[in-house]
Amino acid sequence: MNRSNYNRTLYILYPDNQEPSAIYNEIEIQLGQILPKIQPRQFMLSHHTDRHKILLFDYQHKETLLSHLNTYNVLDYRIETVAINVEKRPRTEELLQLGNLKGLFYRSDPIDLIITALREIRDGQIYLPRHICGQLLHYYRYLFKNQNISATISLTSRELEILRCLKTGATNTQIADSLFISEFTVKSHLYQIFKKISVKNRTQATTWAKQNLVS
User: Fold this and answer.
1) Beta strand 53-58 pairing with 9-13
2) Residue 104 pairs with which residues in a beta bridge?
3) How does DSSP classify residue 79?
4) Where does the record place the HTH luxR-type domain (predicted)?
5) Can you tell me the distance from the alpha carbon of 88 to that of 169, in angstroms, rounded to the nearest whole number?
6) How far is Cα 50 from Cα 63, in angstroms, rounded to an integer?
7) How far, rounded to the nearest angstrom, does the alpha carbon of residue 100 sit from its chain's CA centroid?
């Protein structure tokens, strides 16, 4: 994927009321460009309208930055991040706090490796050490398997019928007519279904049904 298609910009994220770390100077020199800099307060104001940022941050500031972003309730899986200056291998739960992690670099990584990888990340690639990929893959495989099994077991026969209707693209009215129930009852069932399969809306529920219901 080339740069014009991916259309992402690296931003340096640094704590409010502080100056950016000196570590960024060498990165900018090696990249041959000055990277825009942003603080959590500024990011909170712009992220809804501008989703094309990849946030580059010093892992040593992780706690401060995460506390700010979580306070503003903006850190989620859609926010792309790159962590640098990582001292030791993070635990899986720490990795999961970092949004959509696109890159991770240890303090011991040579600058030329970091620069090459950052250029690739801007163009749509991901640079994560193999052991980090393994951690995340193991976690999501386990999570997907167990959540889907427990969710399917907990669904009632009526809820399964409604999910199968969602697979076909049926509206609430059409579901109500086909199952001889009211639209209010359909909405009530959908509310319970969303909770049980851990989705937020009808589109996600439809995707879940297509992936997990055979018929």
Assistant:
1) parallel
2) 83
3) S
4) 148-213
5) 48
6) 24
7) 4
Distance of CA 2 to the CA centre of its chain: 22
pTM of the model: 0.63
Q: Which residues contact 133 (CB under 8 A, 6 or more apart)?
A: none
User: DSSP 3-state helix, strand, coil percentages of the chain (rounded to 5)?
Assistant: 55, 15, 30
Token couple for 130 = 């193999």
Q: What domains sit in the chain, N to C, each tagged with a CATH number?
A: 3-138 (3.40.50.2300), 155-212 (1.10.10.10)
**Under 8 Å between Cβ of 13 and 83:** no
Contact 86, 60 (CB under 8 A): no
Asked if residue 76 lies in contact with residue 99, where contact means CB atoms within 8 angstroms, the answer is yes
List the helix and strand counts (H, then E) for the chain.
11, 5
pLDDT along the chain (215 residues), means of 10: 61 88 92 91 70 87 79 61 95 85 95 95 93 88 63 78 90 92 94 90 88 69
Which run of H or of E encompasses 102? strand 100-106
Q: Distance of CA 43 to CAs 16, 55, 141, Å? A: 11, 10, 32
Block residue for tokens 């259309």: 7
- Residue 81, SS3? strand
Residue 58 backbone zone (phi > 0: left; psi -120 to 50: alpha; other: beta): beta
CA dist list (Å): 165 to 26, 94, 123, 152, 209: 56, 39, 40, 16, 9
